């Protein structure tokens, strides 16, 4: 309901956005801007092991 950008049958990748709960963004409620998580995902890797979960094959 209310979805306007994709159609039934489109391929989508839902991305869970983790939060540290410690940085100024998480404390402000703007958890989608978590500084710690963005530092890792900004380069395409996960925070815990610095490895990517996606590949182009």
Automatic annotation (TrEMBL):
Record key words, sorted: Cytoplasm, Metal-binding, Oxidoreductase, Zinc
Pfam families: ADH_N
This enzyme's EC code(s): 1.2.1.46
InterPro entries documented for this protein: ADH-like_N, GroES-like_sf
Presence of the UniProt keyword Oxidoreductase in the record: yes
Intracellular or extracellular location(s): Cytoplasm
One cellular-component annotation, GO: cytoplasm
Domain of life the protein comes from: Eukaryota
UniProt GO MF annotations: formaldehyde dehydrogenase (NAD+) activity; metal ion binding
Broad EC category: oxidoreductase
Domain (Alcohol dehydrogenase-like N-terminal): residue spans on this chain: 2-46
Coiled-coil features, chain-numbered ranges: none
Subunit composition and interactions: Homodimer.
Name the UniProt record assigns to this protein: Putative alcohol dehydrogenase class III
């Amino acid at each position: 309901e209310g979805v306007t950008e994709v159609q039934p049958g489109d391929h989508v990748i839902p991305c869970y956005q983790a939060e540290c709960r410690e940085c100024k963004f998480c404390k402000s409620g703007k958890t989608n801007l978590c500084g710690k998580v963005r530092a890792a995902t900004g380069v395409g890797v996960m925070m815990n092991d610095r490895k990517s979960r996606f590949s182009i094959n």
